[in-house]
Specification:
single chain; mainly alpha; 136 residues
Amino acid sequence: QSKNPKAFMWASLLHDIGKPVTTRRRKGRITSYDHDIVGADLCFRFLKELTEEEMFIKIVAGLVRYHMHMLYILKNLPYGNMENLLKKVDIFDIALLSKCDRLGRIGANLAEEEANYERYLTKLIAAKERAAYQKN
């Protein structure tokens, strides 16, 4: 269950908004590198046309921006920015959005994605606790 269902719904709808701009054929594969980064900007501009709720827009754009981080962090890829993620989004909502995104893939393995979600959430909680401890 999302802590902010309205923002979660919009993030779910818009999380791949950057794909049309970033999708390319590279070495025989179709890729959408940086669609999360481009998507966050597009999401922000799109929502600015619909509402003046700045906090709502920031929450949705943040979820769009970090929805790929489950993959980045679990695979220890250099694109993962845990520090910024912790500052910008609710860890439970970003983990849930990432899980939903992964489960929406054709041929998704439910058990594997559930295990990935649990590992990711565990890492997020530990990082948040470390950050809180270091603050004090």
